[in-house]
Amino acid sequence: MTTLPTGGLALSQLDEQLLQPGVKGLALTAPLRQHMIGVQRWNVLAGDTGFPVALLKTSSLRHNLDWMRAFCARHGALLAPHGKTTMSPQLFDAQLANGAWGITLATASQVQVAARFGVRRVLLANEVVAASDIRVLLQLLRDNPAFELFALADSLDGVQRLADAVTAAGLRRPLPLLVELGIAGKRAGCRTSDEAMAVARAIAAAPGLQLAGIEGYEGLLVTTDRAADLERVDAFLQAMVDLVRQCDAEGLFAGPQILLSAGGSSYFDRVAQCFAGVTGTSRPVLSIVRSGCYLTNDHGHYFELTRELDERAGGGVGLVPALEVWSTVLSRPEPTLAILGMGKRDASHDLGLPRALLRHRIGAAGPVALDDGWHIEKMNDQHAYLRLPENEVDELRVGDLVGCGISHPCTTFDKWSVLLLVEDDYRVTGAVNTFF
Amino acid sequence: MTTLPTGGLALSQLDEQLLQPGVKGLALTAPLRQHMIGVQRWNVLAGDTGFPVALLKTSSLRHNLDWMRAFCARHGALLAPHGKTTMSPQLFDAQLANGAWGITLATASQVQVAARFGVRRVLLANEVVAASDIRVLLQLLRDNPAFELFALADSLDGVQRLADAVTAAGLRRPLPLLVELGIAGKRAGCRTSDEAMAVARAIAAAPGLQLAGIEGYEGLLVTTDRAADLERVDAFLQAMVDLVRQCDAEGLFAGPQILLSAGGSSYFDRVAQCFAGVTGTSRPVLSIVRSGCYLTNDHGHYFELTRELDERAGGGVGLVPALEVWSTVLSRPEPTLAILGMGKRDASHDLGLPRALLRHRIGAAGPVALDDGWHIEKMNDQHAYLRLPENEVDELRVGDLVGCGISHPCTTFDKWSVLLLVEDDYRVTGAVNTFF
């Protein structure tokens, strides 16, 4: 990475790795050491890369990093960005270097990847249940005294499984757990305070376990009625705070602080505001937000949600999209139809199809912005169907490039093992890797 | 691979590679050479693997390989299975060892992966347009005299780009191209015979290019009215045959044979039947079907379509599903709801959600089949929502395993870098890799 910080032995090994011909987006004719990408003088607009290609705009990443640091400072919140979004060691490192408290992850194998690349504090925002998953996590804790892991529990069965495993493994330090509070009809998490308290008491009483905090995920409360959503979000967050007080009153927490964590990428402003006021507890409360999509944002689902968040905060320049997928016009089979060499294998399609942003003819002065009359109407595995406005059918030829924004970074990152870092003029300055 | 053939230097390098902790589905606590997976005595039902984990049942792969070889022999068709489905060198190798004529692919980078792992004949069933893509393909042809590549064209612009590039590269052998015939309102391909003939004549006249055949993709004609679909499929295939005859009458074909290729995974029976009757041409016609999903089949979209295909052929044991994704019950937050540790990152969701097939409690005698009352109703990135029948809510606990079939192999394979090979009793015998 050229303008974002990097560090650690394993990260430098990524820079040194020999990329083989066949890596998507690179069009290599011979193996290339990854750190040499930045000195190839590639420019996407000159057609130097392979197509399709996934791009991260460095200036937008930098803006979003700065924005989030300022946000957290303003609200007294800590950031444990959800690493499952990118699963990119270089982007984990950039976020940690920017002041993130830790990295949030969803599975044991994701934790292993993060630990391998130097992440030292993980919030595993998920229940850990499978014996094999517990085994790999306990091994990480045993082998790396500096490695910190916090995980979730929402059932007495789950607590028992963890307690038994920790005891059997002879782990010398307690495993800190957060009780997950859930929402009726939604995902995991205790459905009532009574259930949550029973789990909390079981953790506090179990040998080898430690009650470290309370966790919830309000991000599932997205409907078409945002006012009602926000009411439910606030009520849920308040229930989490009440649970903290109840556990504290019973003396269930152990360790130097209480972790209180919520916050997907839609409502982390409400989370930070609600949790900022929690004082008077036996030990300090750490308010931890977990947005994963803030870093790259997008041109769809999360762009809209973070625009709303920005408006709630009174405006200003909010988060900006950093991730684009560029492809070639392979065919112009009908006047208003272009077939692009980009499909479900290359861009997310679960929260909206990609948005056509720019067209570019190689050799032209620069790309041309596309209005809403241009839209992707369908994708197959390897192709997208771009519909053109009837009065602009002469503007796009076979071989032209089309730059698309995406909706939902998580399901775009997982389609690329290498994403290219570009300047605003689409000069390629480096690359990041993903491990899915 | 234990019971499927393997070969080639690069494939043995895959066997020798050191897999790192963090590879999804393996739960490694230390690096492991891939070929050692088969001697670990892992059994999925004993919880020895990580979860989620993607499994290929070796006996079902073997059945499907045999089934397809017999099908092709019966119809005088050649098989160039679409490699984009699996992008797995070991599965390419198994199919070639089973008599496949070549491997079909969709992009230049996929061709590079296949060539790297020993594939020697590729049908690139797509237009090749980007200069960087053309460059890497011509380099493969120049560096490997034994490597054969056939690609598509559907426009005069496209033909010109290829002709210019081949001339500039000084390639000593002509680049063989197939004209793509398309379908109104669908993907790439010439919309009329007149357009297709113009492209065919341009190829025949261009220096460095050679007209090798006619290609089409009838697999886009899937609606809810199958009788009408089949009529359109047959008419489309007949138009392809007519195009062969017209090109042949004009003496446009070069090379020792004429390639005539269609066939996704839904209607390859019609393709084989229609193309079997093409005789009387100046040189032999090779009828090439391209199904990619026959190898693993699925428990959804393609299972239904190949069942219909089997009925059209008069019954018998058809293709069987070979691909399953197993995960753990992470949470039982409500009586009829279980949250599984498997999501959009692990299983396809574009042509139907996964189907819950089996539940298993570790230590129990064996897995229990689930009826249609059990169904996955939703997936997030890392979680699935399994709905239970009201009279069986006591049958599933936190920590139990659930085995799911999937719908659409292409968008499941691309979520795994390693898939495990299992016997019918879920003993793990080996692994295959994917390169997306």
Greatest chain-chain interface?
A-B, 76 and 76 residues
Mean pLDDT of chain A: 95
Computed structural class of chain A: alpha/beta
Oligomeric status: homodimer
Helix content of chain A: 25-40%
Tell me the total number of β-strands of chain A: 20
Largest sheet of chain A: 10 strands, mixed
Report the portion of residues of chain A in β strands: 15-25%
- Specify the number of helices of chain A: 11
Could you explain how this protein is built, in words?
The structure is a homodimer. Chain A has two domains: about 10-55 and about 320-435, Lyase, Ornithine Decarboxylase, Chain A, domain 1, CATH 2.40.37; about 120-295, Alanine racemase (TIM Barrel). In chain A, about 30% of the residues lie in helices and about 25% in strands. Chain A is built from eleven helices and 20 strands. In chain A, helix 6 (about 155-170) packs parallel to helix 7 and helix 8 (about 225-250) runs parallel beside helix 9. The longest helix of chain A is centred in the middle third of the chain and has 24 residues, at about 225-250. Chain A is globular.
